[in-house]
Write a structure and sequence with these properties.
With 175 residues, the chain is an alpha+beta fold. It is built from five helices and seven strands. It has helices spanning 42-52, 64-71, 87-100, 120-132, 161-168; strands spanning 2-4, 7-10, 20-26, 32-37, 74-81, 145-148, 155-158. Strand 6 and strand 7 (155-158) form a beta hairpin. Helix 3 (87-100) crosses helix 4. The longest helix is centred in the middle third of the chain and has 14 residues, at 87-100. The radius of gyration is 17 Å and the shape is globular.
Amino acid sequence: MILINNYKVDVPDNVNTKYAVFTVEFEKDNRLYVGHVLNRTVISAVTMLILNAFDDFSSTGNSSISQAIRESKYITVELVGGNIFNLDYLFALKYKTIMANKSYIPYGYNQINLSCAKSHEEKKAIENLLNTNPGLKSYSLCKPVYRIDKKTGKSVMFNSAKEAAEAIKGKPSNI
């Protein structure tokens, strides 16, 4: 356990690894942020994620991930895979983690698309992944849908209108 800006962060032993896929789970709602690092350590990525949450001019400053950080005091970091020097494998593992945890679009960041590519090599690896797995493309277009019980006020999140429609045995076009 370490402290970052008064946040208790539970980190694995090998948090200084580079070229890795990691998850961050927030106390607020237990949903995951799935990230990857290249040429920097996991701990530096997590530190920047936390610090940027309070910077209104950063890409995360006004986002729901920033709100989740602000509303949590305890954050858990897990390493899914470390020392992965093959970009194709790195992105395949990242998106496998996203899909396995149903964590795509919990905060609008875990999307399967080219917008997260920071270099030509990353873009090429993501294009290869999307071309070999066409089913992944649909997840970049999904928006979460919430069902709110009028009596209790309790809400349930679905990852898409299609998923919500299946739950109520209805049609996505009616949602």
